[in-house]
Amino acid sequence: MANFDAKQVTPIEWAGIGAGALAFLVSFFPWYSFSWDGAGLGIGGTSGSASAWTIGIGGWGAVLLLVAAAVIILLPHLGTAVPNKASLWLGFAAGATVIILIRWLTLPDDGGLGELGGLAGGGFSSGAGFGLIIGLIAAIVSGVAAFLTFQGAKKATA
Fold it and tell me: Which of 50, 54, 129, 133 is least enclosed, having the fewest CB within 10 Å?
C-alpha cells in the first residue's frame, strides 16, 4: 500500500472528497421538516423532521453515492488503480444530484392548499430542511468537479 500524500491530491479532487464528506455530515441534519401550531383547534402543536437516513432512498441513496465517489477519488492516492475514475465519479455525482432533486420534488407537503385547506385550523408548514439543501449543493459541487476531471481525462487521451 502506498503512503498517502495530501500534496498529490488536486484541488478538484479535494472538492469531490469534501463534497462526499459534507454530504455524509449533513445526512444527520433535517432533510425534511414540518410544523403545525394547532392554534385553530385550541390544542398544542407539533413539529418534526427527518434526516437523510429516514426519508428513504432519496436521502440515503444519494449520500452513499457521494461517499462512494469520494472513495473512488481517494483510492488511486492509496495505491489502488481505478479504471475510468472520472466516468465513475461523474456518474455517481450526477446520480446523486438527480436523486436529491426527485426527493425534494416528492416531499410531502400541504399540496398547495395552504393551512391544510382550512381543515386543521391553520399553522401547518413543511418542506425541505437544511440538510437536503446542503446535500444538493454538495452533489452539484461534486458533479462540476467530476465533469472538469472527465473533460481533462478526455483531452489527455485524445
Answer: 54
CA distance 125 to 157: 52
Please state the pTM of the whole predicted model: 0.84
**Residue pair 51/31 in contact by the 8 Å Cβ criterion:** yes
Total length of the chain: 158
- Residue 99: Cβ-neighbour burial (10 angstroms; 0-12, 13-18, 19+): buried
d(CA 15, CA 9): 10
CB 7 within 8 A of CB 112: no
Crossing angle for the helix pair 85-105 and 57-74, to the nearest 10 degrees: 160
Residue 96 and residue 50: Cα distance in Å, rounded? 18
Q: Give the closest residue to 34 by CA, choosing from 134, 105, 124, 111.
A: 124
Kindly report, residue by residue over 39-73, the tens digit of the pLDDT: 555 566 777 888 999 998 999 999 999 999 999 99
Cα gap 156→16, rounded to integer Å: 20
Positive or negative, the Cα torsion across 77, 82, 87, 92?
Answer: negative
